[in-house]
Design brief:
- The chain has helices at 2-10, 15-67, 71-85, 108-121, 161-201, 214-261, 266-290, 302-315, 336-353, 384-387, 396-400, 409-419; strands at 88-92, 100-102, 125-128, 135-142, 145-152, 298-300, 320-326, 332-334, 357-363, 367-374, 423-428, 435-442.
- It is of the alpha+beta class.
- The strands form three sheets. The protein has a five-stranded mixed sheet with strand order 1-5-4-3-2. The protein has a five-stranded mixed sheet with strand order 7-9-10-12-11, covered by helices on one side.
- Strand 2 (100-102), helix 4 (108-121) and strand 3 (125-128) form a beta-alpha-beta unit.
- The longest helix has 53 residues, at 15-67.
- The radius of gyration is 46 Å and the shape is rod-shaped.
- The model has no long low-confidence stretch (mean pLDDT 87).
- Bound molecules: adenosine-5'-triphosphate (ATP) and magnesium ion (MG).
- Adenosine-5'-triphosphate is lined by residues 284, 345, 349-350, 353, 374, 376-379, 387, 392-395, 399, 405-411, 434-435.
Length: 443
């Protein structure tokens, strides 16, 4: 479990990077294994084989020197040997040998070479691989003194071992480039789908066409079908509500006309007020039906939107306290009419149920919230979800004398928030004691 978490945290978050990792990790591992096994083993073996041949030539020269009749004879015979063996050989009887090895730490093949020479020749000797990287200087002890051999290094070491590395790195670079190009093309349809789904969640319909691998295309097609179904349902709801509202309006108008012809009296007055109430309800239905994003997002300053709502309330003789918290200020992409209507509905509710009402605009870099609080009776927790549903009025008796809402205010506000990728929550106001409605919107 712990390991899994560690792994999850270590993994890159994006699909592209993950796929890249899955693809490239085996390639890199394979390369490392090949590099170690092949270069180390194979080139090591080749170096040892070639060195062995040279070692026998040196041994032959050593024998020749030791079997010669005299020092000058030895020198002469060495000179004759040097040409067919292709080595530079001299006798240096006066210099003493300090056995040892001069080798750079990077020189892997040099290590195998020196190792093999020492093993085959089995005499005290000094090997110098550092003085010249193309020539090996070798002092071997003989009975006639030091034998100096200068051996071209290429006779003992496999040529150009780095070429293999170059080929390996080059080909894996080409492979990786191809893989990255392919991956990009595979990931793009997924990214497009995510973008379209996110936009639809916020109430915008982006053009989208399923592309890519079969599974991704299937997901895209499913998303399109789902989007079409939701759009169809919204459209049906809108059409039904507008149709009903519209059709009811005509007989209502007729009743009102008929009423105007009648003698005015207490009964006609009552009927007239009922008609007015029905018309108000129909207006609410229509507004709810049209609520789904009739207006397009535009840059709006939320502070001035809040100030306008407060000013409207003041004109109606009601005081709403306005607070603005956090930042940064400035315009935010919002649906102006939809948002304003949502906040207005919350304020209307607060004014209807409470005496003190406060509107707080809370800003943060990612989101903004309109918080409406009042000192009214509030809504008990178990009824809050119900209150958000359309056509629900809690406690009919309590509301009766306030001149009939239809129970759409909170539903419209919730719709407005959801259509913009936000939300609406109800809870208790800590310092006013009534309801606190919080409408959040992403920035
Ligand atoms: N601030 C509040 N304090 C107490 N109860 C509330 C508050 N706001 C809403 N409610 C309750 O929630 C119910 C639903 O509110 P909603 O705004 O959806 O409808 P409404 O106000 O009855 O009608 P409409 O807003 O459509 O005119 C209300 O009937 C009311 O009982
Ligand atoms: Mg209301």
């Amino acid at each position: 479990m712990m390991e899994m978490q560690w792994l999850r945290r270590g993994l890159p978050r994006g699909l592209f990077n993950r796929a890249l990792l899955i693809l490239l990790l085996p390639i890199l591992l394979l390369q490392a294994v090949i590099a170690v096994v092949f270069i180390q083993r194979h080139f090591d073996g080749v170096t040892r084989q070639m060195t062995e041949a040279v070692a026998y030539e040196i041994l032959y020269a050593v024998e020749t020197v030791e079997n010669a009749a005299s020092l000058s004879d030895a020198a002469r015979q060495l000179e004759m040997l040097a040409v067919p063996l292709g080595l530079f050989l001299t006798l240096d009887p006066d210099t003493p040998i300090t056995p040892g090895l001069k080798l750079g730490f990077w020189d892997l093949s040099g290590r195998a070479l020196a190792d093999e020479l020492a093993r085959r020749i089995a005499r005290p000797m000094a090997i110098d691989l550092m003085r010249d990287d193309k020539v090996v200087f070798l002092h071997v002890a003989t009975a006639r003194g030091a034998l100096l051999a200068e051996i071209p290094r290429r006779r003992m070491v496999a040529a150009n071992p780095h070429l293999l590395l170059v080929w390996m790195l080059g080909s894996s670079a080409v492979l990786s480039a191809i893989a990255i190009a392919f991956l990009r093309n595979q990931i793009r349809p997924i990214r497009d789908l995510a973008r379209a789904a996110e936009a639809f969640g916020k109430g915008r319909t982006l053009p989208f066409r399923p592309r890519g691998a079969a599974e991704v295309r299937a997901a895209g097609a499913a998303f399109l079908a789902m989007r079409a179904r939701i759009e169809r349902q919204i459209e049906q709801r809108t059409r039904m509500l507008t149709g009903v509202s519209h059709d009811l309006r005509t007989p209502l108008t007729r009743i009102r006309l008929a009423l105007a012809m009648m003698e005015p009296g207490p009964e006609t007055e009552e009927i007239a007020s009922d008609i007015a109430e029905m018309e108000r309800m129909l207006d609410a239905f229509l507004a709810f039906a049209r609520g789904d994003g009739q207006d397009e997002p535009a840059p709006v300053d939320p502070a001035s939107l809040a100030a306008r709502i407060v000013a409207d309330a003041a004109r109606m003789g009601r005081e709403v306290e306005l607070r603005i918290e956090g930042g940064p200020p400035g315009p935010v992409a919002l649906r102006p009419a939809t948002t304003r209507r949502a906040v207005q509905n919350l304020i209307d509710n607060a004014l209807a149920h409470g005496r003190r009402v406060r509107l707080t605009l809370r800003l943060s870099p990612q989101a903004l919230a309109f918080v409406v609080e009042d000192d009214g009776p509030g809504i008990p927790p178990e009824r809050r979800a119900e209150a958000l549903r359309p056509f629900v009025r809690l406690d009919e008796a309590r509301n009766q004398d306030r001149g009939g809402g239809v129970g759409l205010g909170l539903a419209i506000a919730l719709d407005a928030a959801r259509a913009q990728g936000g939300g609406l929550t109800l809870d208790d106001s800590a310092d006013l004691g009534g309801l606190r409605a919080t409408l959040t919107l992403p920035r």
